[in-house]
Amino acid sequence: MLNRDIVDIITGMALAAFGLIIAAYATTHYNLGSLQRMGPGMVPMGIGSIIALLGIMLSIGGASRPHFPMPSIEWRPLAAILSGILVFSLAVPRVGLVPAIFLLTLITSLADKQLRIKTVLALIAFLILVAILIFRLALGMNIPIFRWAF
Question: Does the keyword Zinc apply (predicted)?
Fold first, then answer.
């Protein structure tokens, strides 16, 4: 067991536990309904079950292959992506959708050293256009495009 891929075994077990917790919470707190008339707990229970199954499969795969060295953690992309998500979640209610998408894309683009500013600006414009088309026009959600909260 010591010469097995312990990282995949532990990660798979954690995923399986997380999925089981989601599925158990959904079945105990929400009505599942039936396959013809699904209740609000059917989708979380299904997703939790799929996550648990994938975690079990990852653990089995890790137990069946020999250990290989763990790669080093890339801190720059990790920090950039987590910071972008945090800034986006804080910015949407305060400044609106467009500035929040601008900040999210700008911050997360710092994860890649090779991105050019023209590419980032084109991506920002595309994401803003798609977000407005989907959330405001197609879904009719009342998300403020611009907001001055100060």
Answer: no
